[in-house]
Amino acid sequence: MIDRHATGMSVRRRVLGDAYVDRAEAGKSAFDAPFQNMITETAWGTVWADDTISPRERSMITLALLAATRNFDEIPMHVRACANTGTSQEDVMQAFMHAAVYAGVPCANQAVKLAKQTFSEMESEAE
């Protein structure tokens, strides 16, 4: 039997990075622990752990879906994860262009702004 939580934590750390996961875990409370465990087991331990498609493809799909559903708060985190999934800035732009056609220009426009800001922050942090 697969330990979805352990698998999820491993995948989550590989995609989001240890620093991000450590901060998230440190901020976990008794109130949100069940929710955090569910996310770790389902999103990371099941969906992201599946190797049918690559992490790069998952990043692109995730970013397009976040833009399309206007879940803008999650976009910077997943843009940062692109550094760990092999997803280029060009890939991110293609995901948002696809979202613009199928979900609307305004949501994709906001996503592009957030990605541009996040990429700029990442470049500054690397200096």
Question: How would you describe what is shown here?
Answer:
By secondary structure, the protein is mostly helical. The chain is 78% helix and 0% strand. The longest helix is centred in the last third of the chain and has 22 residues.
Give a summary of the structure in a few sentences:
This protein is 78% helix and 0% strand.
Write the layout of secondary structure elements.
Elements: H1 4-16, H2 18-26, H3 33-47, H4 55-68, H5 75-85, H6 89-103, H7 105-126
Helix pairs in contact: 1-2, 1-3, 4-5, 4-6, 4-7, 5-7, 6-7
- Tell me the structural class: mainly alpha
Which percent band covers the strand fraction?
Answer: under 5%
Distance between the termini: 44 Å
Mind summarizing the main beta sheet?
none
Mean model confidence by pLDDT:
97
Multimeric state of these chains? single chain
Q: Helix content range of the residues, please?
A: over 70%
Q: Which outline best applies? A: globular
Instruction: Please tally the β strands and state the result.
Output: 0
Q: What is the H-and-E element order? A: HHHHHHH
How many distinct helices? 7
Uncertain segments: none
Radius of gyration over alpha carbons? 15 Å
